[in-house]
């Protein structure tokens, strides 16, 4: 009887810990679509850290998950932060009128002579000259095939679920941080 009680107690404790982790600390997410290739692929399973932004600020280039609407969550890369002026000129990202390297795009950029990311300014998309407080500008890494802030505008920081910390499936693509 003592052995059964010990096993039951251990199982209940494990379930409680799993519930706390899943509810408050981490979320599992399945990538749906090609907008983040080659960083993330359709069907990848991700672990999203839901509490990291309680202790630190969202940084440019973080890969985040956010509520796009009531039914869908999107995974995108943070490009612009509050106060930033964002533009794309000659296929080069400009933040506050300075060129910003995007090394995570190097493996995706085709050598086909075509523009990888079409030119835009924040003002042409949102009517704002700078990203307002409490908002982010996000883009997918697959710039030719991504539904992102160029299409739907700015993302409220309140919509952010968390930061993608781990890709855990498939095992051949396990990776920490992006």
UniProtKB/TrEMBL annotation:
Recorded GO MF terms: signal peptidase activity
Membrane-related topology note: Single-pass type II membrane protein
Known catalytic reactions: Cleavage of hydrophobic, N-terminal signal or leader sequences from secreted and periplasmic proteins
Localization (cell): Cell membrane; Membrane
Transmembrane feature ranges: none
EC code(s) of this entry: 3.4.21.89
Keyword terms: Hydrolase, Protease
InterPro entries xrefs: LexA/Signal_pep-like_sf, Pept_S26A_signal_pept_1, Pept_S26A_signal_pept_1_CS, Pept_S26A_signal_pept_1_Lys-AS, Pept_S26A_signal_pept_1_Ser-AS, Peptidase_S26
Family per record: Belongs to the peptidase S26 family.
Designated name of the protein: Signal peptidase I
Highest classification ranks of the organism: Bacteria, Bacillati, Bacillota, Bacilli, Bacillales
């Amino acid at each position: 009887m003592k052995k059964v009680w010990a096993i039951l107690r251990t199982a209940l404790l494990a379930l409680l810990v799993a519930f706390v982790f899943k509810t408050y600390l981490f979320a599992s997410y399945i990538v749906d679509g090609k907008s983040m290739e080659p960083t993330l692929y359709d069907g990848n399973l991700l672990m999203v850290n839901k509490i990291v932004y309680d202790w630190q600020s969202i940084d440019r280039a973080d890969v985040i998950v956010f509520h796009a609407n009531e039914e869908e969550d999107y995974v995108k890369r943070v490009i612009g932060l509050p106060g930033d002026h964002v533009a794309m000129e000659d296929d080069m990202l400009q933040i506050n009128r300075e060129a910003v390297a995007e090394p995570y795009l190097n493996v995706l950029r085709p050598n086909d002579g075509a523009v990888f990311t079409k030119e835009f300014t924040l003002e042409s998309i949102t009517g704002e000259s700078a990203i307002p407080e409490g908002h982010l500008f996000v883009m997918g890494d697959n710039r030719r095939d991504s539904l992102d802030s160029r299409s739907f505008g700015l993302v409220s920081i309140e919509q952010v679920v968390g930061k993608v910390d781990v890709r855990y499936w498939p095992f051949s693509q396990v990776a920490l941080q992006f």
